[in-house]
Amino acid sequence: MSDHRFLRALRREPVDRTPVWIMRQAGRYLPEYRATRARAGSFVNLCKTPELACEVTLQPIARYALDAAILFSDILTIPDAMGLGLSVEEGTGPRLAKPVRTHADIAALTAPDPETDLRYVMDAVRLIRRELHDKVPLIGFAGSPWTLACYMIEGQGSASFARAKALALEDPATMHRLLDVVARSVAVYLAAQAAAGAQALMVFDTWGGLLAPDMFREFSLRYLTQIAQSSQSHNVAKSTPLILFSKGANAHLEALADTGCAALGLDWTISLGAARARVGQRVALQGNLDPAVLHASPTAIRTQVKQALADFGPHPGHVFNLGHGITPDVDPERVRVLIDAVHELSAPG
Amino acid sequence: MSDHRFLRALRREPVDRTPVWIMRQAGRYLPEYRATRARAGSFVNLCKTPELACEVTLQPIARYALDAAILFSDILTIPDAMGLGLSVEEGTGPRLAKPVRTHADIAALTAPDPETDLRYVMDAVRLIRRELHDKVPLIGFAGSPWTLACYMIEGQGSASFARAKALALEDPATMHRLLDVVARSVAVYLAAQAAAGAQALMVFDTWGGLLAPDMFREFSLRYLTQIAQSSQSHNVAKSTPLILFSKGANAHLEALADTGCAALGLDWTISLGAARARVGQRVALQGNLDPAVLHASPTAIRTQVKQALADFGPHPGHVFNLGHGITPDVDPERVRVLIDAVHELSAPG
Hints:
- The structure is a homodimer of 349-residue chains.
- The first copy, chain A, has 349 residues and is an alpha/beta fold.
- The first copy, chain A, has a single domain, classed as Alpha-Beta Barrel (TIM Barrel), CATH 3.20.20.210.
- Chain A is 50% helix and 12% strand.
- The first copy, chain A, has 16 helices and nine strands.
- The first copy, chain A, has helices at 5-10, 31-40, 43-48, 50-63, 77-84, 103-107, 114-117, 119-132, 145-154, 162-170, 172-196, 213-233, 253-257, 272-279, 298-312, 332-346; strands at residues 69-70, 86-89, 93-96, 138-143, 200-205, 242-246, 263-265, 284-289, 318-322.
- In chain A, the strands form two sheets. Chain A has a seven-stranded parallel β-sheet with strand order 1-4-5-6-7-8-9. In chain A, strands 2-3 form a two-stranded antiparallel sheet.
- In chain A, a hairpin with a 3-residue loop joins strand 2 and strand 3 (93-96).
- In chain A, helix 9 crosses helix 11.
- The radius of gyration of chain A is 19 Å and the shape is globular.
- The two termini of chain A are 26 Å apart.
- Chains A and B meet through helix 10 and helix 15 of A and helix 10 and helix 15 of B.
């Protein structure tokens, strides 16, 4: 299994063709997902029921020639396990019933124990691994400390996360206290997913790119580094490649590559060639087609795939993906065009 | 008036202190704005009534020690004058009743004549100039061709502008036809604002940063260059400095500086020092505090201002601003703290 092209690419070893998976590949654009989601009653219940989480994780694997499965879950499982009360409404996005607002709120937080407080995630990982029958590797994931802290302070998504940023500017010590407990939680959570069977791990720093450079280094990068370092000190996790995806933070690519991660996720605002030139041989790269490309014609999709492959060039270390999650309004047949084009156009001529 | 520190800074001449203005300074965070807006009945009526547009333009100038006024208007006046039917609802943002969807829609578009089709804007510029009594210079503005085309195709804002991008990928010739008529419209509109009295001009490329690099160059940068070049061939406009603001497009800073513009607007995801090092002496820089800073304490705001000024360094060519528009939930007294801090901390010691 460690010979699967997805894991080989993450180790920057030669592959027979470029591996491909798609962020949010188990999602609302698939009718079979919508059916399971309806049976689950709520998004949170879907995440918290291992059998259902397993079912939707496997749906895109059954439908397409994907090279990796990704655990179906949510980045806010950690704040939920800390007692903040997660709910997710269709259309309005996730909400935490009890955001942290005071020093006392933050001081009261403790790192959840994965095998007790987040048992449903670990059970889902074990079940998915069993049901995958080693067809493709399984990716586990978590949100970045900065991204989780943003949600924990605001209680929901925000265009600017002004409250979180204001706390960081006014009272950095308190913000660091929050980030520290979240970073420790993320590190043990990822290690537990690896122990339960995840063969690669990914950290989504969805809101890191909203920070000014000094703040990015102090409040996001520092904790990404801590997690990458920590994963190397865990027995199981150290052999499990870690992918960091800091959306909108291409200015910091070299620093992200120096964290000790195996690969960087890229959004589509940088060319794969330019990114490779900047990070050299330090890490593999994952990405990075604009998800909007899936709204274009099959011919245009194939042209974009060809261009992305040429842009990366004949080097090892590329995992094809979108530069952000697939959106619910995409035609599933366009996804097939993309995946098949990656395999066909990257095969040795 | 050409000796005003704002215009001197745009020409990269020495100034007594760093000039400052704030994107959306005439806006909902001000109670006097909300009062005029209520009297106007609708946002569009506020834009289209020169006396009311003048009134709100002058409100922040009366309240703060700002160094420039900016015409109160909307970037969608051009599509509206093309017959697309602009409306703006509080909360949901602007809408165009008749988006362009077919080749025929696009072929039917013609560039509006500013002094007839957009007379209300020109009248507002003339009235504001008169009422300003040369207290501070007046900035005119327009949306970028790419940004206007996005709205014209989608009919409203969008997280991804997937329809506009899909057209660009599938049928670039049609997209260029649209961008061409919009770019010609923007160029004559800006020249007419300068002729009516605007002493500086700004182009907001709000959605350029959503494009992959090749697409940015082909569908945004090309038309920004066309506008910058065109402004230099107009009698009045050529002596009127042009500021380009391509949000989220810091990867393209050198290319933007080469368009022939006088200054670049910057968002907060790049440090002023790093930006200055990259563009050298070619252009002035405007920006770039994160608007979220205005949610922090007065002490934190002053610290951030001091840091931004130090970051730019003791060079000519800095216009202080936020890195994006001020948000409606800001306390007007925090804005005063910011403006006063810029003047105080940039004054010769």
